[in-house]
UniProtKB/TrEMBL annotation:
Domain Glycosyltransferase RgtA/B/C/D-like: 80-239
E.C. number: 2.4.-.-
TM helices/strands, residue ranges: 102-122, 129-149, 155-172, 179-208, 220-241, 284-304, 316-336, 348-367, 379-397
Primary residence: membrane
InterPro entries, alphabetized: LipidA_mod_glycosyltrf_83, RgtA/B/C-like
Protein name in UniProt: Glycosyltransferase family 39 protein
Keywords: Cell membrane, Glycosyltransferase, Membrane, Transferase, Transmembrane, Transmembrane helix
GO MF annotation terms: glycosyltransferase activity
Membrane-topology descriptor: Multi-pass membrane protein
Native source species: Stenomitos frigidus AS-A4
Annotated Pfam families: PMT_2
Compartment(s): Cell membrane
Length: 509
């Protein structure tokens, strides 16, 4: 156990600057620093030549920007993200600086807090040191939790608040003392001000209490309702902000409403669930790829055995915690279209529920006095080993699946940095494009120059001495640079729309 914990800590706290600081993390720095995307467009997209330092200026604390500016940035442009994590990150940056390592170290610390929070929840739920220890071992080396413990976003804090609110509820239900019912809405508010989907955690808790109390207005039910209403009332100010910015939120999260095949969504959700235990560079050449089907089968059996064997109180709590999260998102996808239920970071309560159920089944099988108990010990060792292998696989990687199209930024930056007198052009002012540029700035060399504009017409033709690159250019800019017989444009990475301008072999200087 000590070795597993040590490896979990090692994977979370080292190589913090190794993976690409991707678009959403760059937006974290932007919001924390009190700037907006509109600020970047207004100040930098005017066609004049800039360097990477100009982009990084908007990702660093500035004496002219206050804590209120941090909140205001979220209010006007990104209210789907409540301010708690961003204010916490601002205080952290004031103490330790604005570097990638500094801001990610906050997530690493929160990732370590997941483990004692999980242990407390397990003791309240299972009253078993064995199950608690197994759950800690599985989560300590879980590749999913390791990845998000190294990312400058609020999801690891959401994991902590989910665990703490769940443990506080179980404690309040068990001891029936006012102190714990007073603490529950406090932790619930922290969760809501971390991520709005904490409302689904509250829904799961409500279903648990209601079913356990037989849908009666018992003393425990009344206490829960009062605590839940207190928590929701405290979140009301930000909820009103979100309602006021509903159109902006819809535009920002439009990618999650793309219609997809329900069967494919189900397969993707199952695949993402397996990533809780195994996450390597999958491909036909990789033998670990062929472990995925039996691993999903094992998880399915574990959930079946859990539903059959676990005590009602334990079974009910985990199923409501995981189900309220996963089934609600699935229902929204079915009714409205979209792929919310396939986004792993939206399914943290579900993921925790799966891992708790697996820990229970493993402990029950290992403790049972029959010949197969040794086989289940081996299964446990294999699951932990798969997590360690996954952590080692992603530990030194420049990118991973959760960086999406920004996985191309490291090779792009190397190509640009190695070019003689490189010049990067872009006339795309979308949030995605601005985020890509902010992210890319962390990997560019000092000699790289950029020209950004809101329209291709305002960009002067590049000097002949420059090696020119384009990031998400408009059709107008592409056509403008393809004129004549001197140069040709090559699309190097289609997904992120990165182009390179090359001189034709028969052209004259």
């Amino acid at each position: 156990m000590a070795m597993v914990l040590a490896l979990g800590i090692f994977f979370r706290c080292t190589h913090l600057d190794q993976k690409v600081y991707w678009r959403d993390e760059a937006f974290t720095s932007l919001r924390v620093s009190g700037f907006t995307v509109a600020d970047v467009r207004q100040q930098l997209f005017d066609g004049h030549e800039i360097g990477k330092a100009d982009l990084q200026l908007y990702q660093q604390l500035n004496a002219a920007k206050s804590w209120l500016d941090t909140v205001q940035s979220l209010v006007v442009e990104d209210s789907q993200h409540p301010p708690l994590y961003y204010l916490l990150a601002r205080g952290w940056m004031q103490c330790f600086g604005s570097s990638v390592t500094a801001i990610r170290s906050l997530s690493a610390l929160l990732g370590l807090l997941v483990l004692p929070s999980l242990y407390w929840l397990c003791l309240e739920l299972f009253e078993s040191a064995l199950i608690s220890g197994l759950a800690i071992a599985l989560v300590a080396v879980s590749p999913f939790h390791i990845l998000f413990a190294q990312e400058a976003r609020e999801f690891v804090l959401w994991t902590v608040t989910t665990l703490l609110s769940s443990a506080t509820l179980l404690r309040a239900m068990r001891v029936q003392k006012r102190l714990w019912w007073y603490l529950y809405p406090v932790v619930t508010v922290l969760g809501l001000y971390t991520f709005p989907l904490s409302g689904l955690v509250l829904l799961g808790h409500g279903l648990y209490v209601a079913v356990l109390e037989g849908w009666r207005l018992s003393k425990a039910m009344i206490a829960f309702l009062l605590a839940a209403l207190a928590g929701l009332f405290a979140f009301l100010p930000w909820l009103l902000v979100m309602l006021n910015q509903a159109a902006k939120i819809h535009a920002t999260t439009g990618w999650a409403t793309v219609k997809t095949n329900p069967f494919l969504r189900l397969l993707e959700t199952a695949f993402n669930t397996s990533r809780l235990f195994l996450d390597v560079d999958f491909g036909w050449y990789n033998p670990f790829t062929y472990i995925i089907p039996p691993l999903i089968g094992l998880l399915g059996y574990a959930l079946y055995a859990f539903c059959r064997q676990a005590p009602l109180r334990v079974k009910l709590f985990i199923l409501t915690l995981a189900g309220a999260n996963a089934f609600t998102l699935m229902l929204l996808d079915l009714l409205l279209g979209g792929l919310r239920s396939t986004v792993p970071r939206y399914l943290i309560p579900y993921n925790l529920g799966i891992q708790l159920a697996v820990a229970y089944v493993l402990a029950a099988k290992m403790s049972h006095p029959h010949k197969r108990s040794q086989q289940w010990q081996q299964v446990t060792i294999v699951l932990v080993a798969l997590g360690i292998i996954s952590g080692a696989s992603s530990w030194s990687a420049e990118s991973w699946w959760h960086k999406y199209d920004n996985a191309y930024l490291p090779p792009i930056s190397r190509m640009v940095n190695q070019a003689p007198q490189p010049l990067l052009l872009s006339d795309n002012v979308s949030d995605r494009s601005v985020g890509n540029l902010l992210s890319l700035s962390h990997r560019l060399s000092d000699h790289v120059r950029l020209r950004l504009a809101t329209e291709a017409a305002t960009l002067e033709p590049p000097d002949i001495r420059h090696q020119v690159f384009l990031l998400r250019p408009s059709d107008t800019l592409v056509s403008k640079l393809q004129q004549g017989k001197t140069y040709q444009l090559t699309q190097v990475y289609r997904l992120i729309q990165f182009w390179r301008r090359d001189r034709l072999p028969d052209s004259k200087a």
